[in-house]
UniProtKB/TrEMBL annotation:
Residues 1-20 form the signal peptide. This is Rap1a immunity protein domain-containing protein. Pfam families: Rap1a. InterPro entries: Rap1a. Keywords: Signal. Residues 37-130 form the Rap1a immunity protein domain.
Length: 146
């Protein structure tokens, strides 16, 4: 079962960029994949006038969900790997996670050219650290954005 879950998460991560390709309209510059932190932040918090706002938000939420599920699968009970972050209970929604990540990315422009997954992990570690603080707030090892 674990191998099936892991394989599904990897397939989702590998195929999401191809499925989320968006064509620019009227010469507008539209981010078509989450290659960098800046790309993912733009996708997660598009302007209200963005021609593909809903598609961008859906892409962001899928990306965050897949990353969270992969993290959870890698750190299942019995696995020796420590969690990289510990979510509060209840965890934030996937929509809250996307907006929070975008805000973090704007506040941390030094990471804007890093791979998107690295920035997402940095954000999760900064927002949901493990340890004494996590235990005090009732943290769990679940996925981001339920």
């Amino acid at each position: 079962m674990r191998i099936l879950t892991l394989a599904s998460a990897l397939i989702a991560l590998a195929t999401a960029p191809a499925l989320a390709q968006m064509a620019p309209q009227g010469g507008a510059s539209i981010v078509t994949h989450a290659g960098s932190v800046a790309d993912l932040a733009a996708i997660c918090d598009p302007s209200p006038q963005h021609p593909r706002r809903l598609e961008s938000i859906a892409y962001c939420q899928g990306y965050i969900t897949a990353a969270g599920q992969y993290h959870t699968a890698e750190r299942m009970v019995g696995n020796q790997a420590s969690p990289l972050y510990c979510l509060p209970n209840p965890p934030p929604t996937v929509a809250e996670s996307g907006l929070s990540f975008a805000a973090w990315a704007r506040q941390n422009p030094q990471y804007s050219n890093e791979p998107a997954i690295d920035g997402l992990t940095r954000w999760a570690q900064a927002s949901f650290p493990c340890g004494d603080a996590a235990q005090q707030r009732g943290a769990n090892r679940g996925t981001m954005g339920r």
